[in-house]
Amino acid sequence: MNNLIEIKGVRHAYTTADGPLPVLDGLEIAVPEGGFVAVVGPSGCGKSTLTRLVAGLMMPDVGEVWLHGERVKGPRSTVGMAFQNPVLLEWRTILQNVMLPLEIVPTKLSRKEQKERARYLLALVGLEGFEDKRPSELSGGMRQRASLCRSLVHKPEVLILDEPFGALDAFTREDLWQTMHKVKEAEPFTGVLITHDLRESIFLADQVVVLSGRPARTQYVLDVPNTGPRDLEHLYTPEAAEMLAVLRHQIEVAQGRAPVEEGVA
Length: 265
Ligand SMILES: Nc1ncnc2c1ncn2[C@@H]1O[C@H](COP(=O)(O)OP(=O)(O)OP(=O)(O)O)[C@@H](O)[C@H]1O
Ligand SMILES: [Mg+2]
Hints:
Elements: E1 3-16, E2 19-32, E3 36-40, H1 47-54, E4 62-67, E5 70-71, E6 79-83, H2 94-104, H3 111-124, H4 140-152, E7 158-162, H5 170-186, E8 190-194, H6 198-204, E9 207-211, E10 218-223, H7 238-254
Helix pairs in contact: 2-3, 2-4
The structure holds adenosine-5'-triphosphate and magnesium ion.
């Protein structure tokens, strides 16, 4: 199998006081090794639920999630996660926060090597010199950079990012997009990025999956032709404008605000 992540026919409903709430209904996503897939869809359609299934924090009612040819049945140390809110521990320094997963996941690294790895990652994202600061001494963008280092420190095969840049201002977000490309080159991973920013999806990912409204199914898949690092100018090309128009239309369909065209799944 060439796909490192495979989500096959996944259906899931939450049990609520008002009865079952169907959230995912026929999800199909495949990410090849080294691939980076962005998932976009209306608010509340089930994107964060999808990340929990891939991370093995929850099992789907129906369907399967496979990572590297093995069916996911529980949490795995080969997965790293980063979220919109970085939740760094204030009583630890930035370096100690980045090293946290190494205290949980078994590692062959000595304490000295662990520190070296954390320092290397912090330098990679531009946080050299901030190792001994506390989280509250950093800006939102810097905290998100530190959170990214923490999600990568144990060399996960799979990185799941759930709206990691959602709370940042536009310029900081664009800086972080470029940092992401740099990080992916230096520390290759197979990624799933949840985002509601269509520009972010085509700038970072090599495939964009649009989910329908809840219960979510895979509504549309767009292949982004430029893979690997790209600069922000790419977002101002006619090709990018066309991709964004297609995605925007698909989101409107998902929200029930535009009719489904014939021939579109
Ligand atoms: N633990 C839970 N128990 C019951 N319902 C839940 C639970 N978690 C999420 N939901 C519901 O499931 C639906 C999907 O939630 P989810 O967080 O996956 O959506 P999302 O696509 O990530 O939304 P957003 O774009 O706002 O982050 C929502 O209606 C939410 O209220
Ligand atoms: Mg969410």
